[in-house]
Amino acid sequence: MTTSLYERLGGDEAVLRRLVDAFYDRMDRDAVYAGIRALHPPSLDGSRDKLFWYLCGWTGGEPHYVSRFGHPRLRARHLPFAIATRERDQWLDCMAAALLEAGIAPALGEELMRALAPLADWMRNRAE
Question: What angle do CA 2, 4, 6 make, to 5 degrees?
Fold first, then answer.
């Protein structure tokens, strides 16, 4: 039986909430992420909740996002936003830094990044 990412994260939603908060705090605070910050509404509260709900289910925990909104349809939901390689790379860099800030074990953080990279790449919808 395979152990889910959620279980390897401790099976605790607080870990994912800490990660999401570190991610959006960093995005809001660091000018290097201004490109992706500009794609979000002035208040990040809704974005925080949606990413948290999504990551819970995506890692193998409770499917909070699906129970609220149905299938994520991530690419379709991101089509209104100009996402090219620059934005993808900013998102991934911000997430990598948030994993460290949230205290996720380095090996698990690397595993999460390997899983998130193709997902982030799939969100690209604009030419370089």
Answer: 165
